[in-house]
Write the structure tokens for this entry.
Amino acid sequence: MAREWTRTVMTAAAAAASVSLLGAVPAVAATTTRHCVLNSETGVQKCSTGTARAALETQEAGQVVQGTFFDGPDYTGNSLTITGPELCKKDGWVNWQFDLGDDWKNKISSVQPWGDCWVWLYPEPNLGGDRDGPFKENTGNVGSFMNDRTQSIGFS
């Protein structure tokens, strides 16, 4: 019996030493970043778990990238790129609007406008509620007013 007890203690000590030398094994594997491209005219969304570039390669011909949105600050985390039929016009009006699906509602933290578009963020569907913007340049932090509150987007 004494011999079994000694063996158990030595095994436990060896295991503890291994953890201290090698570091603890993470309990959960890292999550995969998802990059999606959404055609605002058709509503078709294609996603990639590779790079954002891989997702953009699925973009349909003739579509213009109007904006890319990230769920993390400084363009990190999952991304959603929205395409439209043409460049935005600077005529004082929202040229295109898009209501976010449940998978993107209340998640946007950073914005990249494209296609001559200014981006407006709204806290309600159909461009409802107080808006924030226009975001005319890459914005790594949309600010506390609209961070994780956006439900619809206007492109002008």
Q: What stands out?
A: The helical segments are 2-22, 52-56. The longest strand covers residues 64-72. Residues 1-29 have pLDDT under 50 and may be disordered.
